[in-house]
Amino acid sequence: MRKQSSTNTINKEHIESNCGIAYTNSVLNGRWKLNILAFLLDEEKLRYSELKTRLIGISERMLIAQLKELQADGLVHRNSYPEVPPRVEYSLTPKGKSLEKILIQMAEWGTKNNQN
Amino acid sequence: MRKQSSTNTINKEHIESNCGIAYTNSVLNGRWKLNILAFLLDEEKLRYSELKTRLIGISERMLIAQLKELQADGLVHRNSYPEVPPRVEYSLTPKGKSLEKILIQMAEWGTKNNQN
DNA sequence: CTGGATCCGACATGATACTG
DNA sequence: CAGTATCATGTCGGATCCAG
């Protein structure tokens, strides 16, 4: 059992044998990832603190963790500026942007089917 | 659930889109749900044992649990026949089928981006 | 401001034996 | 065949303190 490099708990060994859905799931699975991607898709780039403000309820620990996983999976780009105080901006990579259609459809589906 | 900053630093589309995504995420969240839905989408209806065979590595406990949640969310229909031995077939509800486009796109994206 | 490190409880998931 | 019950394990995710 190969130790996970950095992504998440789902082992990617016997995933490829099944179908693309499993890989997509392994990349997007997580309580906050879809929301993070949606915000970045909407606003191009966001600072760490801006993300934290928008993701109501997330802890710093989780925000950092999810961002790292998204970076490891090549969906999110991290750009830090050598300033004081530090400034870090996150944005979508092309791979991340290629999820746009899926994200939009998920948003539409959720809005339509969430009857509370 | 929509909270509003009085004016419009954040546009409405944005907020709705994220609420929708949050609901979609909450419904699809889980290690196996997407795969279960994908198999049911593909094969119309499947028996419990057929699902178990296809979902390599899932435990009975998890399969039942995920199926129950999918039923509770109205995505999957359970049809049991009064026979001996018992026969139970699972299929997608219309709500479940309405995820078809999303599932197909996730499968395509996963196949295209899973470079192993 | 942007994180890193650690502790800990809650919960997701798995293994296995058992039942109608 | 289609589940349940029980026990065991690991991961998630929050709180808190610390650092450049």
From TrEMBL, chains A, B:
Membrane spanning stretches: none
Molecular function terms from GO: DNA binding
Keywords, comma-separated and alphabetical: DNA-binding, Transcription, Transcription regulation
Record-given protein name: Transcriptional regulator
InterPro entries found in the cross-reference section: HTH_HxlR, WH-like_DNA-bd_sf, WH_DNA-bd_sf
Key word DNA repair present: no
Domain HTH hxlR-type: 19-116
